[in-house]
Inverse folding.
């Protein structure tokens, strides 16, 4: 079956035509998807740009109005920390109340510590 | 006494041949790759075990109904899903429900890399014809270069049902061997400076874009290549379930229990279809060689096209050409290979998210290529 490499078979089967058309069509399909989705962002931000222009913001002419994934991750983290009330700075309100009790040797620090010999 | 003799004649020891032993060794090798090397374990464990299962020697065609090719056997019923191309679209449904297309949408030009890498399919198709394979079978062999197991099985079930076993095993073997096959080709075609290129981080993608993608993608691709409808239809449907945000339960079922069940049945039966007497032929060996060539061409095609794109791109829009290799699909292994190579060159260069874009676009590209080949060849066939 595989005695020789036959270019005639390739030519006669129309494989070249199928391959060229096939490859071009795959490219065109993804090129169309690329065209649609690279312009979709512009369509979606059209109103936003118009509003920014009316307000006189310079950002209206920026090529990309979107923020990067890294920035949005940082913003999301900050919002999460805010709502979860996890904060970096203590609000300095003391929550320990001093309670007065009568003296008892059972809780005396003096008896609780090891007595080391003095030199 | 006669009964004992009868029993002994039916045992595996009485029927074993050297070919059974070879195929069982292949199955064990797959299991070794999966467990020890951790190459695609979810695929290689079921396939490897299936290869062993399909090559346990027994007396065929005496009414025992044991073998995968014997009508009425349990394995034969399960294999029906492979032969009729039922499992691949269900796997695509799960893949769609698991895939996040946002990296692709944030940088849509990377879609073209997924198209470029499909060159392997068509060049191998031509080579297979030159080597004497009929046109339809050559197309089924060429699709191995798409590095997409379900697509390869789907197309071969339509164009070359008798070659499903070798084509499936070749496709899944090369998918598992991505970390071995791709790095040398990538290194050969790129300079150290190119491998260090840092790409700008992907932008945040809006929900509208994410929901529009499966709908627009389905309409556009299947109008052009209706042959890809079962695959792309399910892929985009799964993705819509995920992105719509209102069908979380369906998306979770598609992306976990459903795809797991189908993967088990698919892997096991594809493995079991490699029964020695059917599988070990000169055609199978040639399919393996052609599959490897196809995969290498596809990898090189993606990398070279990324370099060509760089000629027209400026500044931080430039691509790291290594991500072109991920255009062969083999999700997500080829993207992982690119990430690994990128970090090796520069420990602060993370390419995984960028490589996922051509990776998922390669899935779409290979399914479109399969649809086109079906459109051309089902008439001839």
């Amino acid at each position: 079956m595989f005695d020789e490499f036959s270019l005639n078979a390739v030519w006669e089967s129309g494989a070249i035509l199928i391959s060229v058309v096939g490859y071009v069509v795959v490219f065109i399909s993804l090129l169309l998807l690329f065209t649609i989705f690279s312009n979709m962002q512009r369509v979606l931000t059209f109103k936003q740009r118009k509003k920014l222009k009316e307000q006189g913001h310079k950002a209206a002419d920026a090529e990309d109005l979107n923020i990067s994934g890294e920035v949005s991750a940082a913003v999301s983290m900050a919002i999460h920390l805010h709502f979860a009330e996890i904060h970096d700075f203590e609000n300095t309100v003391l929550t320990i109340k001093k309670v007065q009790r009568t003296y008892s040797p059972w809780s005396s620090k003096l008896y609780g510590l090891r007595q080391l010999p003095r030199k | 006494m006669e009964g004992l003799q009868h029993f002994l004649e039916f045992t595996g020891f009485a029927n074993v041949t050297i070919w059974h032993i070879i195929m069982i060794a292949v199955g064990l090798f797959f299991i070794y790759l999966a467990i020890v090397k951790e190459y695609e374990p979810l695929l290689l464990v079921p396939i490897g075990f299936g290869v062993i299962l399909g090559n346990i020697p027994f007396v065929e065609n005496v009414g025992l109904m044991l073998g995968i090719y014997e009508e009425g056997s349990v394995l034969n019923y399960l294999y029906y899903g492979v032969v009729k191309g039922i499992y691949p679209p269900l796997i695509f449904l799960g893949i769609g429900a698991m895939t996040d297309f946002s990296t692709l949408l944030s940088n849509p030009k990377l879609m073209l890399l997924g198209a470029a890498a499909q060159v392997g399919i068509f060049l191998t198709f031509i080579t297979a014809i030159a080597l004497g394979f009929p046109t339809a079978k050559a197309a089924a062999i060429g699709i191995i270069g798409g590095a997409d197991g379900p697509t390869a099985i789907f197309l071969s079930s339509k164009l070359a049902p008798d070659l499903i076993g070798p084509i499936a095993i070749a496709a899944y073997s090369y998918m598992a061997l991505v970390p071995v096959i791709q790095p040398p080709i990538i290194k050969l075609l790129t300079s150290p400076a190119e491998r260090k290129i840092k790409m700008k981080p992907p932008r945040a993608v809006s929900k509208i874009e994410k929901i529009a993608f499966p709908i627009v993608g389905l309409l556009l691709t299947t109008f052009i290549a209706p042959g890809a409808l079962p695959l792309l239809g399910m892929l985009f449907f799964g993705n819509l379930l995920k992105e719509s945000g209102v069908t979380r339960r369906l998306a979770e079922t598609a992306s976990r229990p459903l795809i797991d069940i189908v993967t088990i049945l698919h892997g096991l039966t594809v493995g079991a279809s490699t029964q020695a007497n059917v599988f070990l032929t000169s055609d199978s060996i040639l399919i393996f060689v052609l599959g490897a060539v196809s995969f290498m061409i596809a990898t090189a095609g993606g990398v070279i096209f990324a370099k060509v794109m760089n000629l027209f791109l400026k500044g931080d829009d430039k691509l790291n050409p290594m991500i072109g290799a991920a255009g062969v699909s083999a999700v997500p292994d080829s993207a992982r290979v690119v990430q690994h190579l990128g970090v090796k060159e520069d420990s602060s260069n993370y390419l995984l998210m960028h490589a996922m874009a051509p990776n998922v676009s390669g899935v779409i590209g290979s399914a479109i290529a399969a649809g086109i080949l079906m459109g051309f060849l089902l008439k001839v066939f």
Notes: The CA atoms of residues 7 and 346 of chain B lie 64 Å apart.
